[in-house]
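Box 3.1 A note on notation
Throughout this textbook, protein chains are presented in two layers. The first layer is the amino acid sequence; the second is a token string describing backbone geometry. Keep the layers aligned when reading.
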Amino acid sequence: LPPQERRYLDLNSSIEKLIEQSLVETDQDGVKNIYYNIIQECEQALTLFPERPIPLLIKGIILEKLNNLSESQVSFNQALVLYPSREDFLLDQATWYFRLGMKDQAKKSLTAILKENPDSIGAINLLGTIYEEENNYVEALKAYSRVLELAENQNQTTMIPVTKMKIAMLQLRLPMSLP
């Protein structure tokens, strides 16, 4: 790998580790320090590859967590123009909201996608994952069943076995009386 790419990947894995730390850290000042470190590393990643939107997305979400909403929005707007579509932006945004423990915001991004494209496999699949994490197995099952139906109709062969496995695992958790 070129040195610049290696540095970018190192920053990505460092950001991932910091995110993990931020989710288990109990001290508020400790969490804030981790957030500032994440922002700093996102900015370093952006100096290497300004055309890559993920660091802007993560930075926007962290700024939102720090209640810096105007700067957060600037970051999101900068990220949005780097995506081929609004749906791609919203799906990545929802994914990172979810990974950063902000399920309600993730759902808002997913709702915006599904309003425009009710058949978005990615959005429905992530919604199922969120429901599953919330122990809302009935809604998760509905979401995954819809993903399976869409995957079969669109011949998304890689999605089919994974989704069948998710459905089977959920059915084991449900009481017999439910669907």
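DSSP finds nine helices and no strands in the chain. The chain has a mean pLDDT of 95.
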